Amino acid sequence: AKFSSNSKVKFFAPEMEAKEYRLLKLESDIHRAIKEKEFTVHYQPFVDLKRNKIIGAEALVRWQHPKDGIIYPDAFIEQVEQLGVIVELGEYVLLSACKQFSAWRKAGYDLEKLAVNVSTLQLQHPKFIERFRHILQYTKVPPNFVEVEITESVLVGNANKTVALFRELQAMGVKIAIDDFGTGYSSLSYLKQYPINILKIDKSFVSEIISASPNTGIVSAIIAMAKSLNLDIVAEGVENDWHVHFLKQKQVNIVQGYFYSRPLPPIQFEKILQQSNWN
Ligand code: C2E
Ligand code: CA
Ligand code: CA
Ligand code: CA
């Protein structure tokens, strides 16, 4: 045999070797990608159903890989977090999105909502607030247009610290949105402890809005809960007429989803802004 008996290699099944190799490759790929600025930001519109117009966008990161083409965040965000480069990537996304948002407003587009995803590790970085403030000042984006989307996992950690962070962001004018609501471990009692502005209904619940679906009850319950806590609501994953109809009926007016548009590169996003019926 090629390997000695104490070699680690022989304990791995071939598919494990392949996986290990892929992870190692991914790690060096990510470091290069950060250095070479291979990450880009796409924008998915928020549509106001009442005013029938695009009022803003969620910034979603993509990796423009030189060999593999476009890679979606579910394939690399976790690894980016584990490698500790999420702080760098997150700042890059925030800066790009703020620059773009500012440019669109300068060009005359009436946008009032920019949402960025912030991972727990990023939020907890000691310099997060300082750098966030700096980026807003530098790009001249009015802080009250900016929303930080955070998942429920943040709420399970150190409450005092998180509350203080949320308050600092809110003191600047920035809003806090809870993303993927209903998929994690949080509950009503968690929600009540935190100063939150917006609740995003997860797409898994929205996608089950069909007549007589028991999950319509879940969506209704989430909406009722948000209302009782005085939170604004955004619905994601809106894919068809029936979703729109249902949400309108429930007075959920801010939505995003493939029914209106997929996340788009800036140039395409600007094209849909130009379509007169949206402005
Ligand atoms: P998310 O924040 O829940 O974003 C919504 C995801 O749903 C996006 O996937 C979006 O493309 C997709 N989506 C939008 N509309 C529809 C629809 O109608 N139907 C369906 N089935 N899906 C829809 P994406 O862009 O692949 O992002 C996946 C996740 O990666 C995001 O989920 C977010 O958690 C994370 N992510 C994206 N960008 C960033 C970032 O800059 N920083 C961090 N920390 N996480 C990010
Ligand atoms: Ca999000
Ligand atoms: Ca979500
Ligand atoms: Ca998600």
Short description:
The chain is 45% helix and 19% strand.
Outline the structure in words.
The chain contains 12 helices and 9 strands. With 279 residues, it is an alpha/beta fold. The longest helix is centred in the first third of the chain and has 23 residues, at 14-36. The structure holds ligand C2E and calcium ion (3 copies). The site of ligand C2E has 23 residues, from strand 2, helix 3 and strand 6. Ligand C2E binds next to strand 2, helix 3 and strand 6.
Total helix count?
Answer: 12
**Structural class computed from helices and strand pairing:** alpha/beta
Indicate the radius of gyration in whole angstroms. 21 Å
Helix fraction bin:
40-55%
Subcellular location: Cell membrane
Organism: Paraferrimonas sedimenticola
Protein name: cyclic-guanylate-specific phosphodiesterase
Domain EAL: 23-277
Helices and strands in order, then pairings?
Blueprint: H1 14-36, E1 39-48, E2 53-65, E3 69-71, H2 77-82, H3 86-106, E4 113-117, H4 120-123, H5 128-139, E5 146-151, H6 153-156, H7 159-172, E6 175-181, H8 188-193, E7 198-201, H9 203-206, H10 215-228, E8 232-235, H11 241-249, E9 254-255, H12 266-274
Parallel strand pairs: 2-4, 4-5, 5-6, 6-7, 7-8, 8-9
Antiparallel strand pairs: 1-2, 1-9, 2-3
Helix pairs in contact: 3-5
Bound molecules: ligand C2E and calcium ion (3 copies).
Residues 58, 117, 149, 179 line the site of one calcium ion (CA).
